[in-house]
Amino acid sequence: MTEPPGRRERKKAATRQKIADTALRLFLERGYEAVGIRDVAAEADVAVTTLFSHFASKEALVFERDDEFRQLLTRAVTERTAGEPLIPALRHVVHAMVRHCAENGAGPIWRMIDESHALRDYEQSMMVRLAEALATTITADPELACGATTGRAIARFVIAAFSLGRQAADPEAAVDEVFDLIDAAWQARERRDPASA
């Protein structure tokens, strides 16, 4: 007898979270470089193949919300109500993402990332992927009437707001500061080309 889809998805999500939590604990206890994939799999009581079915790489274990962040950003565009402005919707999502990254206990994780060349490189590639996904979604929205160059520029600034916000002493203020610039640029575009409003 097969399991109902809802139960199967819940079990899959629980396994994924268990692996991510185990990996993070081991990385913080022993150091990122000292822990291997086999160590994580053994501690989480899963096969290495199971671990790789959830995470494409060791670095992805640290950035386990990468895909969720991508979905949040793209849904901020695609799930807007008719006529809802783009920039406030994106600002709201980026604030939520930065709050997650600044939660209590996140400091040691970010120090570990900052001290690891592999993790810093992965974070940079993740930011590029997030920006590209967001740019594609913005450009594809017919209501926004936005060309590829404008879409990519806006997306890169949005991801910069996320990156700068997570590093700032006052994350909320940093995000708002960047979004004020994004909003001003977007409004200037709409004044220049009323058809895009």
Automatic annotation (TrEMBL):
One of its GO terms (molecular function) is transcription cis-regulatory region binding. PROSITE patterns: HTH_TETR_2. Residues 13-73 form the HTH tetR-type domain. Residues 36-55 bind DNA. This is TetR family transcriptional regulator. It comes from Umezawaea tangerina. It comes from the Bacteria. The lineage of its organism: Bacteria, Bacillati, Actinomycetota, Actinomycetes, Pseudonocardiales. Keywords: DNA-binding, Transcription, Transcription regulation.
